[in-house]
Amino acid sequence: MLLAAGAGRRLGGIAKALIRIEGVSLVQRQLRVLRQAGVGTIVVVTGFEHQAVEAAVRAPGTRGAAATVAYNAEYAQGLAGSVRVGLAALGPGFDGVLMALVDQPLIEAGDLCTLMAAFEGRPAGHALVPQVEGARGNPVMLDELVRERVLRSAPGLGVRELLDREPSLVHAWQTSNDRFLTDLDAPEDLERLASLTGWRIELPRR
């Protein structure tokens, strides 16, 4: 599940999914990484500027036509609603669900493969959360029990809220890979990424 519904308020109100790095939008970049990691079923949750984001998903060469798009009309209410829309669109029957954020451009296919292997080999728990020196990272993975619990709960409760409420469901996977901590929430995050990588970063038109 690729969460791409946010309005990027701290970036001035832009669809973060449409930020372009070296000419490729974040949503297209993340779709490619998910495919390279062997993720077979992908749901992209859209919201803000959803028509433009969905056009990017289905652009030639992205293999986005094989992804399901789920629109969250209430995206402004927060991430929990988008998570619930995505989980409902996925349906049951998965051994594991990977919840990916569209604004983590440093995540590579190898990182996701390592994450999925850690989930499969976890000693306990129904969700796996990467932790880097005590800091909580993303993506996270969860099983069918967590998915069902979220969808049967009252509106407003998403995966993070459930796991915070019931920490016994969580296996905290310790890793030194700080790519799991990198996201793009504010202008300084973009500046830091450009300085670190030398990538050309372009914001979409408002």
In terms of topology, how is this protein built?
Elements: E1 2-4, E2 20-21, E3 24-25, H1 26-36, E4 43-46, H2 50-57, E5 68-71, H3 79-90, E6 97-101, H4 109-120, E7 127-132, E8 135-136, E9 140-142, H5 144-152, H6 159-165, E10 170-174, H7 187-197, E11 201-202
Parallel strand pairs: 1-4, 1-6, 4-5, 7-10
Antiparallel strand pairs: 2-3, 2-11, 6-9, 7-8, 7-9
Describe the structure in your own words.
This protein has a single domain (2-202), classed as Spore Coat Polysaccharide Biosynthesis Protein SpsA, Chain A. 34% of the residues lie in helices and 18% in strands. The protein is built from 7 helices and 11 strands. Strands 1, 4, 5, 6, 7, 8, 9 and 10 form an 8-stranded mixed β-sheet that branches. The protein starts with a strand and ends with a strand. The mean pLDDT is 95.
What's the CATH topology label?
Answer: Spore Coat Polysaccharide Biosynthesis Protein SpsA, Chain A
**The named CATH superfamily:** Spore Coat Polysaccharide Biosynthesis Protein SpsA, Chain A
Q: Specify the structural class.
A: alpha/beta
CATH architecture: Alpha-Beta Complex
**How many structural units, i.e. domains?**
1
Beta-strand percent range: 15-25%
- Residue runs with pLDDT of under 50 for 5 or more positions: none
Residues in helices, as a percent range: 25-40%
**Rounded Rg:** 16 Å
What is the residue-mean pLDDT, rounded to a whole number? 95
The rough form would be described as globular
Give the terminus-to-terminus CA distance. Answer: 26 Å
What is the overall number of helices?
7
Largest sheet composition: 8 strands, mixed
N-to-C SSE series?
Answer: EEEHEHEHEHEEEHHEHE
Number of strands: 11
